[in-house]
Amino acid sequence: MSKRQREQEDGSRPPKRPKPEQSHGQSQNQQYAPVVEDIQFARQLQQLLVFRQDGIQQLRHGLASFKAFLESILYHRDEASRPRQLSILREYLDGQKPAGELRDPEKPFLAQLWQAWSFGSQNDNDYLSSQVCATLALLLRTLSSLLDLRDHGILLGQTVLQYQHLRLVRRGLDAPNNMDYVVSPCLRLLTEVTSFDGGALAKQVYKHREQTFDINSLRRNLGLVRKAASDEEAKRRPSVRTLTVRYVLAHLKYLHEGGKIDLLSVRPLCTSLLQHLGHDPHDVVNEILSVTEQNVLRDNEMPRLAKANLLTQQNLERVTEIATRSGDEHPSSDRAYAWLKAVCTISSYGILRASGWYPPGTTSADLQPGENDSGIDLGLDSLDFYDRTERSEFLNTILHGWLQTLRPQTDPKERELAIMCFEAAPELVASYFAEKHFSLEPKLSNTWIGYASFIFEVIRLPVPAHLGNSEATTFAEFPPQTSIILNNLLPQPLAQKILTRCLNQPSELITFFAIRNLVLAFQKMVKVLAEMRRATASVSVENKILWQGAAARLLARFTQRTPSMQDVVLAFRRLPDDDGHIVQREAVTRLLRLYYEVTPVQALEAQVDVSTALAAALTRSEEDAGVSDVAALRALELEHLLVVAQHSAGMRWFTKSGGLLYSPVVSLLRLHTKDLQNRRIRVLLGRILEQHGLLVGRSGADTLSRKTLGLSELEALVASLVDVPGEDGETWAFVDDCMARATRQPVKYADQIDAAIAQTHDVGSNDAPLGLLAMVMAEQTRFVAENTRIIHRVAKYLGLLCSVERPSKAVIALHEAMTGLVDRATMGADDRDALLVKTRLIEPPTMAPPGKYLMEKTSIPFNPPPAESDDHPEIVRWSLKDLATALEDKDIDALILCLSSQHPDIRRQALVQLRHLFAKLQAFAIDDKGPLSVLIGSLSETFEQQCLHAGEDKPLPFLTATFAVRALHVLMEPAHFMYPKLNRFIMRSPEWRITRLPAYWLSNTTLSQPEEDDGYWKEVLWVLEWLIDGLRTSVDLDILRRGDVFAKMMALYLSPGAEKMKVLRERVLELVFMGTCVEGGSDVLALRTGVLGWLAMVGGDVAGLVRDRALRLCDGEKLVKWSGVNVEEL
């Protein structure tokens, strides 16, 4: 088909009408140019703000003038005219007050402006409506800064909250998305009303939430983001989202706890609040984080569930975008990072739950292993949950999901956040690596280095207290699962194959990474094994085998995850022995030492000879005299090598190698003469020389016969060589040669010693054996007779051995054989004693047993009952408020407690006020008025019949008054677990039997079925907390004693079901403490309930403190007469 030909233009056709670019209202608004007049008097302002349907333009001029007038006051633009402006504003506002009832909907405050807003709303004049709304918001903001005009601001806020005006506000909030000029003023107005005077009207605003806080409307407005706006433009003209955020934050800041809980229960709203956080201006981001932390997360009255609705995984990710992924140039990154750290580490913030290395329900079990004697004891395998293959359960699900989104390998801040989470909740380590899979194949890249640094920080985490038993302050019955512990020691990416490859890499950085992580893992393993030994000693007999089996299994699996000893030795031998690699050498020698100390079976699989390295280190230590960092690392390396050499079976102590002047043992002896108090070297020298028979230690035969000075051969040898100068190589070579001869021909010199003993008949000697070194030295002296220095050293050595009261026959024989060379009198007694004092090791101070010192006792963690105040404003305070407000503010609670006052006048006035309250409840339109009326009526009847009957005028026991207070709150909440029982109780009788209240409720909770399946302990705790609160006077104590309450509570404390209820046990101890706070209460508890013996049986710090208090406050004479034992003995 051919293309249609273009028609010829016909000039007679009229042109098309151009499409209008703006609507009529918009063009009309562009034509409007405000005329601002200077306000000189109130009458002028009143004339400007008069509403007439035919004077809309003049009204808008007046609104513009009023706005300029208010801004001048608010921002102090004209300080000279400010007093006159305030006077004009006050006069105008006073003239606008309605003459009659303030809340008359027909005559509202500022009626002209409300009429104008209503007219604009009815006629779709959105610009007029928005201008009026903006003016009211500005007026309210101005009044909030003027204390003298507070009443006018309250009146304006209450006027806004009238139904017909809220309809106008609601219509503005529901305006289309493109009409932000209509939505924004309404949000500003509601925000000012909510935050006026510190939130005085916040509760009323939220009470009308159908109009003021529609969730769908707020969520839509929270999504209206202006993404391309600069910070300056965002401050000058905030977006709808910004204003909505500030409106929601005003509620979180000023609402009461109940309102905030209700607000936060709407999870979609919490999600929308932080959904576009990355596009918000930095001041809005700071405000969101500050308000949520200060007014929600730090509010201890808020339940964890409400806080958790705000701290969802998605919200945490959005804050993370600001904190770590928006760059350091974002002004709010530091604040967001601090917010995240607080959320991750503070348990009261809502999402962090106490946890450790035990998944839920694995600290104990109903069936103990070994209870069934007819079965086979399977040890750890009898626990079906132990080391199971499927993923373990964990409590911190939100933090776990959020951790999976972090990138610790690339961002240091995110790495720190992950480590803080792991430290606060140790259970997350195993769960994190169970789902987070990454490879650590040795490859020197930025990603590999990031992962390696992260793994290093994970291994560095401390071992949790009691091996992660977060349910108690002691070790659990069962050990933690070895798979969980192993993932904390060596995370899953660090497999044995990976570590072996890292050790054999040519890259020194990769090798050092493997060595350093292995060192940390071994050190952490040492701490874990020590804790498991402590747990084994503290648990019951039937569970000891479980802990021992867990330690053995953990050690075996840890050995399977670590590289072989041969790979570590190869890495050690590849390292050059220079100052540039001293850090690596210190680390690898430490690792070799840990292999021998922690996994000796694995270490002994390889023959390790460090004689060359040790001799070189010893020689270097003699030369280095500085205190630099290199010298300190060299000293650590030497210490590690000494331990390795001590354990190594392939160590050649008496062989010179590598061109060294002396053997390793002589080099070690030379080093020790310069540091005589080095206990480690002294012990190592003694062990080496004794193992090879060169010396006889204190454990040898007849050592006890050496009583004078208690001298050992090692001390004599060190003392004889202590002043040999370092340049005297001949003496040290002589000693080295003698040791080598003794190790090569030990039988020859042993026979010579036996022959010398047989030839000696000195009655002052004994048959104690002698080391081979003395015989070799005595034999070799004839070959160096011309060297006086060597002869002098041998003489000193043998002389010291002969200086004891009953020397060895062999020493005497050597002395007689060397007549002319060795003289007993060559050294005086004083010189000998001084030399030995210098040589002997100084014993470390022994620590006295813990019982020898008086530990500073901590204070009792309970508070005594409050004292009665001299003033009682609560008697009439409740009547000045709305009844619902008085109930929420607990003014009725204080009024009920006035019945227990010690002043008769206070009690009578309280009874009169309760009667008024009863009458007011009958006319009050609430759902719970029936049970509340019955409760107040029963309380009044009980007080009249049992406290004012027959001319008596005594106070109501606090047990009864506090019971009524707690019952009042329960009856206001029908979903409470005690509501059914309390409702049945108040319907039983119009009067309560005061003396039987505690016994009745104990029987009705501890010995009865709960209303809810899991509500038994909750009901018992409710009764126990009531008894603690009510025990304030001797009358209350007598009621509890007559009801045998203390005996029942002490029996409940020791019941099997209460073992896991730490809170319940603390409350029982607090009840006993409250009894000691009552006058004469300690005597009653000690003499009538046997509480002293019970506290001694219970044990513990708190029980001991309460027992000491009871002993201190009771009558000593009565106690001695009753028990027959002195108070000091008790």
From TrEMBL:
Ranges for region Disordered: 1-31
Name residues in a coiled coil. none
Any one cellular-component term (Gene Ontology): nucleolus
Q: What range(s) does the URB1 N-terminal domain occupy?
A: 110-451
- Which ranges are annotated Basic and acidic residues under compositional bias? 1-22
| Residue ranges occupied by any URB1 C-terminal domain in the UniProt entry | 894-1094
The URB1 central HEAT repeat domain is annotated at: 648-820
Q: Which GO terms describe its biological process?
A: maturation of 5.8S rRNA from tricistronic rRNA transcript (SSU-rRNA, 5.8S rRNA, LSU-rRNA); maturation of LSU-rRNA from tricistronic rRNA transcript (SSU-rRNA, 5.8S rRNA, LSU-rRNA)
Q: Name one Pfam family in it.
A: NopRA1
Q: Which SUPFAM superfamilies match?
A: ARM repeat
Do you know which InterPro entries this protein is assigned to? ARM-type_fold, HEAT_URB1, URB1, URB1_C, URB1_N
Q: Specify the superkingdom.
A: Eukaryota
PANTHER family found in the cross-reference section: NUCLEOLAR PRE-RIBOSOMAL-ASSOCIATED PROTEIN 1, NUCLEOLAR PRERIBOSOMAL-ASSOCIATED PROTEIN 1
Q: What is this protein called?
A: Nucleolar pre-ribosomal-associated protein 1 C-terminal domain-containing protein
Origin species? Friedmanniomyces endolithicus
